[in-house]
């Protein structure tokens, strides 16, 4: 049974907008950024790394250092220098999409998908909010619009459970073109990401993740947690579907980082590539958290 939801993007918080405009050599040696623009609230801007599997990495920075202003934002308390959240989208996201308003018939499919997912998780410790509009303006002046649905997990911060994003303008306007030939690391898609939560919360969240991704999505255990298969927007032959690993901390360092994150650590991002050196290699110089690229052989 295919996953009910697909991986859309991974969010990485960087210290300042300067990082987006003049990224360090440790990053540009591996990946190339596409300027994304400023969000409608004026509090954040981003740069993007498009991947051949239709997902992307969003490097995001706050436009203000004022903690009192940032506190109102859903990521306002997050520390820069790592993965802070990730988003899913619905089947059919790889299509061209089109302009639509919240009341348009074209919005019915995504809303129906979202409401079905909300119903599946309703009995657990997580509730998803109503879909809300989001927007940003690209550097070329083009406006990009979407709908997002955010989870509220009792006693856990943002990042413990993924949010959901549906396009209102064509997906190609929001998602940058894959530039694998410009990536020194050769990355073509996301293979794995891990969500680390307190041991006593793992069991209940395994049930939540199973409800989000639908029946048959749990593909194996990871200690006391689980592994859940996410679908891809675009197929990449030879690279397995992305998996989210839900687990407890493996050591004191992970526990420390999890505690610093208010009870969640999103880490262990693995990207896939073809060719290059055997095995895995770290990218970004550690400035963006734990990110590696793993080699796969084309079939």
TrEMBL record:
InterPro entries with a match to the protein in the record: Glyas_Bleomycin-R_OHBP_Dase (IPR029068), Glyoxalase-like_dom (IPR025870)
Chain ranges of the Glyoxalase-like domain: 7-200
Name this polypeptide is given: Glyoxalase-like domain-containing protein
Domain of life: Eukaryota
Upper taxonomic lineage: Eukaryota, Fungi, Dikarya, Ascomycota, Pezizomycotina
A Pfam family per the record: Glyoxalase_3
Gene3D superfamilies with a match to the protein in the record: 2,3-Dihydroxybiphenyl 1,2-Dioxygenase, domain 1
